[in-house]
């Protein structure tokens, strides 16, 4: 059984948000769906959380977003 996870990240600019999305297109951590959301500098990411052990996807997404000047919306 898996659970769908939905996260939103805010970036300082549209360019940073698009770079984050482009990296996720070929990301090898997990299969994610990333799209611009609500504003051109926000990205919504959706993926399936597998309940078979600890899933590092959220942590890896947070780290990657940070590399592009973004942070998860709380």
Could you explain how this protein is built, in words?
The chain is α+β, with helices and mostly antiparallel strands. 31% of the residues lie in helices and 39% in strands. The chain is built from two helices and four strands. It has helices at residues 14-25, 57-67; strands at 2-10, 32-37, 39-50, 71-72. A hairpin with a 1-residue loop joins β2 and β3 (39-50). The longest helix has 12 residues, at 14-25. The radius of gyration is 12 Å and the shape is globular.
Task: Itemize the secondary structure elements and their pairings.
Elements: E1 2-10, H1 14-25, E2 32-37, E3 39-50, H2 57-67, E4 71-72
Antiparallel strand pairs: 1-3, 1-4, 2-3
Q: Strand tally, please?
A: 4
- What number is the mean pLDDT? 91
Order of strands in the sheet with most strands: 2-3-1-4
Count of helices?
Answer: 2
Summarize the structure.
The protein is 31% helix and 39% strand. The chain has 74 residues and is an alpha+beta fold.
